[in-house]
Amino acid sequence: MHKRRAICLLWLAAVTALYFFENNSGTRALLATSILVPLISLISARHIARRLGCALEVPESAVSGEPVSGRCAITAGKLLALCQATCSVVCENRLTGERSTLEVPVDGRGIATFILHSRRCGQVSVTLQEVKVRDWFGLWTKAKQANLHTEVTLKPEPVTVLIDAEPGPGDTGAAGDGRLRRSDEPDGTEIRDYRPGDPVRQIHWKLSDKLDRLLLRETADEYRDQVLLLLETCWLDGASSEALDASMRAILSVSEALAAQDLPHLLCWQASGEDAPHWAEAQTAEDAATARSLLLSTAISEEGESVISRLLRELSDVRFRRILVFSPRPDAETQILSEHGPVTLVLPDTVPYTGADAGLQVVSFGKEPELKV
C-alpha cells in the first residue's frame, strides 16, 4: 500500500509540474482526472466498507471428488463498481483435517463465486472470514470481519459391496447351514463351524476331534443378532488422509448394502475430544442415511486410546454375528475383540496388513470391494 501511495504522489507531482509548464486544456483535464478518479474510488470504498453486508451460500451436500460451487453475496449498493472487494473463504474438512484458504474477487454485481475441490469425503466447514474493500489504486484498504459459517457434506463415491448373509446363532437354522443341534448341550447352546476370528476358548474340542473339523460352542443368550461395523477414528498417528477416506467409504458402503437387504447392524466410532464411542443402529435405508450424516460430521483424533479399547469397556458379554473393523492403519487392535464375535479387519488396498494374527480374517477394500458378512 505504501508503495502504491508513493507512486500516486509521484504521478500527481509530475502532472502538476506539467500543468504549470504547459497550462492548456489537455494538462488541466489530465490534472483533474488524476485527482478526481482516485478520490471518487477512495470515497466509494470507504462508504461501502461502512455499509457492507454479506451472505454465504454452498450446497448442503455433494459427492467427493466433484467440484462444489459456492458463492459470497455482497450487498453494498451500486458504488461497488467504483472499487474492489475480495472475500477470504476458509474451507476445512473435519474428517481429514485438510484446510485451504481461498481469496475470491467480487464482481461488479457483488457476487464472489468460488469452487471447492476435495477428493476426500467428510463434512467441510466453509467460513467467510472477512471481506477486504479497497479503492482501484490501492491507496486505502479496509478488512471487515464477516465470520459467516456453513457446512457442506461430501458423500463418498458409491462403490459396489456384495453381502453374503450368513446365519447367526439366533437363526432357526435351515438344512445345510453348518449348525448342529445336540440334546446333551445346555439350553440356548448351539454348535457351529469355526470361522476365522472366533474366540479359541469356545471351540468344542471333543466334538471337533470326533467330527474331524473345528466346531464352536455358542450360547444364544450372550448373542446379539447384529453385525457391528466399527470405524477407527482415534489412534491414527501416521495414517494418511487417503486411507482414512477409503475406510470411511468402506464402512458407509457396507452399511448401505446391509440396509438394502434389511439386515440390522450397528455402527460405532468416536469423535475427537469425547470419552465414549458413538453408536448408530441401522436396518433401513433411512437409518443408514442418518448414520452416514453422523459419521461424515465426525472430527478425528490422531492421538489417544483407540476406539476398540474404549468399546471393550462397554461391551461386557455381548456377542455379535460378525464384527467388521474399518481402519486406516494395519495394526488395529482387533485381537481383543474376538471374544465378542468373529472379527474381520477391512483395510484400504493401499495399506498392506503386516500383523501376525493368523486367525484374523483380513479383507482389502478397493474400488470394487466384495465382502462376506
- Give the name of the CATH superfamily of the largest domain: Macroglobulin (MG2) domain
Mean pLDDT: 81
Overall SS class: alpha/beta
Radius of gyration: 32 Å
List unreliable stretches of 5+ residues: 167-187
The share of residues in extended strands comes to 25-35%
The count of helical stretches stands at 6
Description:
By secondary structure, this protein is α/β, with parallel strands linked by helices. It has two domains: 1-155, Immunoglobulin-like (Sandwich); 221-365, von Willebrand factor, type A domain (Rossmann fold, 3-Layer(aba) Sandwich). Helices cover 25% and strands 32% of the residues. The protein is built from six helices and 17 strands. The protein has helices at residues 2-21, 25-50, 205-211, 241-260, 285-296, 307-315; strands at 53-57, 61-63, 68-75, 83-93, 99-105, 111-116, 122-135, 141-155, 179-180, 189-193, 215-219, 223-231, 265-269, 278-282, 319-326, 343-348, 361-365. The strands form four sheets. It has a six-stranded mixed beta sheet with strand order 14-13-12-15-16-17. Strand 12, helix 4 (241-260) and strand 13 (265-269) form a beta-alpha-beta unit. Helix 1 packs antiparallel against helix 2 (25-50) and helix 4 (241-260) runs antiparallel to helix 5 (285-296). The longest helix is centred in the N-terminal third of the chain and has 26 residues, at 25-50. The radius of gyration is 32 Å and the shape is rod-shaped.
